[in-house]
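STRUCTURE:
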């Protein structure tokens, strides 16, 4: 059964609970940057909360480089251990590897040079994640944000090459639409697909009934492909509760 969540900050946790989502998806970079006292407050809140932060986006901060000549493996290792430990403590099960500023190729660095660096990072992240019950999902991003890994099929190729049980694939229907990648990619890459993001690509806003996007087709393709993992809505903070209440009702009616 597909589980529905929303990408939002800790300040929206009670709204997310009230709306009826299955989980919240927070930024791991934000959680990793908290002081110990602040993190303890987060932990106390989630210990009493009926939902958890099962998913995280915003994995690696931009000042930790994953490609190019300045990769610091010791710093990467330390960050993976600390950040994934915090994700686990708040109920994390999935961590999204988008992190365009960290993974983007620097000037004069080729994809051929960067690809093995990304394979190596995914292996490291998968090894740490496996000890914490977490799966890393590779997120393809539109060309305006990332100069490598722009299509679901490209993320699929990386995930298959990494070949790690705790490294899978994410499909974001917003980035797919911007890059003109058809939803048939959801079926073609179904064996590695472990997480989904969605937003209305016109303005990157909260999905809404009648907004012109074929959500029935998207969710139908996922269901026919046997997808039974998480599906996170991306939404702005304006009219947060009414917009997301309508979006969640729409999605649940489609999969029922």
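SEQUENCE:
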């Amino acid at each position: 059964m597909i589980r529905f969540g929303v990408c939002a900050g800790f300040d929206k946790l009670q709204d997310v609970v009230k709306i009826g989502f299955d989980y919240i998806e927070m930024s791991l970079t934000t959680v990793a940057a908290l002081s110990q006292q602040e993190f303890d407050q987060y932990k106390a809140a989630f210990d009493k909360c009926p939902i958890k932060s099962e998913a995280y986006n915003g994995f690696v901060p931009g000042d930790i480089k994953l490609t190019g000549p300045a990769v610091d493996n010791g710093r990467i290792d330390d960050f993976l251990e600390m950040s994934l430990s915090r994700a686990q403590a708040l109920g994390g099960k999935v961590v999204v590897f988008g992190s365009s500023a960290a993974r983007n190729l620097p000037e004069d660095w080729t994809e051929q040079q960067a690809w093995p660096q990304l394979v190596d990072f995914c292996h490291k992240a998968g090894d740490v994640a496996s000890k914490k019950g977490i799966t890393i999902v590779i997120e393809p991003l539109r060309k305006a944000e990332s100069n490598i890994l722009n299509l679901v099929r490209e993320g699929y190729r990386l995930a298959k090459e990494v070949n790690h049980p705790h490294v899978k694939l994410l499909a974001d229907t917003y980035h797919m639409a911007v890059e003109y990648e058809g939803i048939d990619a959801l079926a073609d890459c179904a064996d590695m697909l472990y997480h989904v993001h969605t937003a209305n690509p016109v303005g990157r806003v909260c999905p809404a009934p009648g907004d012109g996007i074929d959500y029935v087709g998207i969710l139908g393709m996922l269901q026919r492909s046997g997808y039974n993992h998480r599906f996170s809505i991306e939404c702005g903070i304006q009219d947060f509760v009414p917009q997301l209440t309508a979006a969640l009702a729409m999605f649940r009616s489609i999969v029922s």
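REMARK: The longest helix spans residues 111-130.
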